[in-house]
Design brief:
Largest sheet: 5 strands, mixed
Helix content: 40-55%
Oligomer: single chain
InterPro entries: Bact_solute-bd_prot1, SBP
Distance between the termini: 31 Å
CATH architecture of one domain: 3-Layer(aba) Sandwich
Protein name: ABC transporter substrate-binding protein
Shape: globular
Number of strands: 16
Organism: Cohnella abietis
Keywords: Signal
Pfam families: SBP_bac_1
């Protein structure tokens, strides 16, 4: 799921709570304990009153997640946020880090003490980071946060592990299918119904494809972990699961009858020449192909394809349709992976640095300045004839007072993409697996590549082999408490 952040209120109350918690320590020495022989009056007089702690006066340096160079608008928003944050916390030096979270790099970063104080991650990583000790336990900070009850539980609960909080929700998505309606209309292909099925997707993709011109009907991702991620939506739609947790053990479950149906559907798309001839596409490749008119459909969190199609591909809102993922059969659920973007605090940071990082993460949350910043971004995009494409889910509840304020801002401008309420009503978000999800995605990517590159593949054997690898290499070592 990025564009709207907040200001924390009630700093004085929060500071008093922390001061009270820190009252047992005085300049690093324990406070004197009461002696059974000393008069009560004497002991009371000897104990100094704890000084009120003002976090805005603390001097510290924190490094924060900073958008990559290609995200010009987001960098401008972050620079403005840093400036305003320093007006409240003048003694905090902000170091910008454009490191993008990667599961195979986080251990190295932590070991070398190079991970930012505040870094971005995604929904699959909560349990992994918590168990590795690479995410700070921010339960006390979160519980003291005045706005915690207004946070969107659909997202925030994904980073509550065994009752403790390890991350701060930013935004989220439910995987959908984004359709180039203009391509279909130009070729005379009928638009499928919103309440569509796998058969509808297959027929549309086959009819829209033109292999001789290098145009595919659909571009399922075939490179990187995003390939396994794309396919998992079909596993879920068929009623399957990634893993089972029983008796303290984690067992691979994706090589099921549902998994076989899902991989058979992929094979069917390949045999129909509905996918790209060069199928080894990562997220950026597939979304880029959509924006460039080289594929009629792409599977992703919808904001990415929409943003590129509207702002880089020259498409108009009426040219693009956001569809839920298709149901396996008529009357089935339109299940798509529920994912999200989160901020995590480095456990190696000092308590002051952790608190300041938490306050930075939530600085614009639920604030009028956050709304103003969003509106300025919309205006700036309008001046450049660009659209703002919101995420489907944000850190706040849509029906909250703040959610309604955001909607009112969006409704003022014709360059803010508006999702069809009928589509939103059909979306069925399903969270990703709790354990080793990225490793599972990698294993399934190998299966997808076998299917896309060869004929006559034994699909069940491929699924069984992948499940065996994931089970022996990852799941067997897990003990669930």
């Amino acid at each position: 799921m990025r564009r709207i952040s907040t200001i924390i209120a009630c700093l004085i109350v929060f500071s008093l709570v922390l001061a009270a918690c820190g009252g047992k320590n005085n300049n690093g020495n324990s406070s004197p304990s009461a002696s059974s022989s000393a008069p009560a009056e004497s002991n009371s007089a000897a104990t100094p009153e704890p000084e009120e702690r003002d976090i805005t006066k603390v001097k510290a340096t924190i490094s924060i997640y900073y958008p990559t160079p290609d995200q010009v608008e987001l960098r401008a928003q972050e620079d403005d946020k840093i400036k305003r944050y320093n007006e409240v916390f003048p003694n905090v030096e902000i170091v910008k880090s454009d490191w993008q979270y990667k599961p195979d790099e986080i251990g190295i970063k932590m070991g070398a003490n190079e991970a930012p104080t505040l870094f971005n991650t995604y929904a699959t990583e909560g349990k992994f980071l918590a168990e590795k000790g690479w995410a700070a336990d921010i339960t006390d900070l979160y519980n003291a946060y005045e706005k915690k009850d207004q946070m969107n539980p659909i997202l925030q609960n994904q980073f509550v592990i065994n009752g403790k909080v390890y991350g701060i929700a930013r935004d989220g998505y439910v995987v959908a299918t984004v359709v180039n309606k203009k391509m279909l209309n130009d070729k005379g292909v009928a638009l499928p119904p919103l309440d569509w099925t796998w058969d509808d997707m297959y027929n549309t993709a086959k009819a829209a494809a033109d292999p001789k011109k290098g145009v595919s009907g659909i571009a399922p991702m075939g490179k990187g972990n995003e390939s396994g991620w794309n396919w998992t939506n079909f596993l879920f739609e068929a009623g399957g699961e990634i893993q089972k947790i029983e008796g303290g053990k984690v067992t691979a479950a994706f090589n099921s009858e549902a998994g076989l149906k899902a991989i058979e559907f992929y094979s069917k798309l390949k045999e129909a020449n509905a996918i790209p001839q060069d199928w080894a596409l990562g997220w950026g490749d597939a979304v880029g192909a959509f924006a460039q008119g080289r594929t009629a459909m792409v599977i992703a969190g919808p904001d990415g394809p929409l943003d590129q199609g509207l702002n880089q591909g020259g498409l108009k809102p009426e040219d693009i349709g956001v569809y839920p993922m298709p149901a396996a059969t008529a009357g089935g659920k339109h299940t798509g992976i529920l994912g999200g973007n989160f901020l995590v605090i480095n456990p190696n940071a000092t308590k002051d640095e952790q608190e300041l990082a938490f306050r930075y993460a939530t600085f614009d949350y639920f604030s009028d300045k956050g709304l103003a910043s969003a509106e300025e971004s919309i205006k700036a995009r309008k001046a450049e004839n660009k659209f703002l494409v919101p995420q489907i889910i944000y850190y706040y509840k849509d029906d909250s007072e703040y959610g309604q304020k955001v909607k009112a801002v969006y409704d003022k401008y014709d360059n803010v993409y508006q999702y069809d309420p009928k589509v939103i009503a059909l979306l069925d978000g399903k969270p990703e697996a709790q354990y080793n999800t990225q490793d599972y995605y990698g294993a399934m990517t190998n299966v997808v590549q076998e299917v896309f590159s060869k004929k006559g593949v034994d699909l069940k054997a491929q699924l069984d082999a992948a499940a065996k690898i994931v089970q022996e290499k990852f799941y067997d070592s897990i003990k669930v408490e």
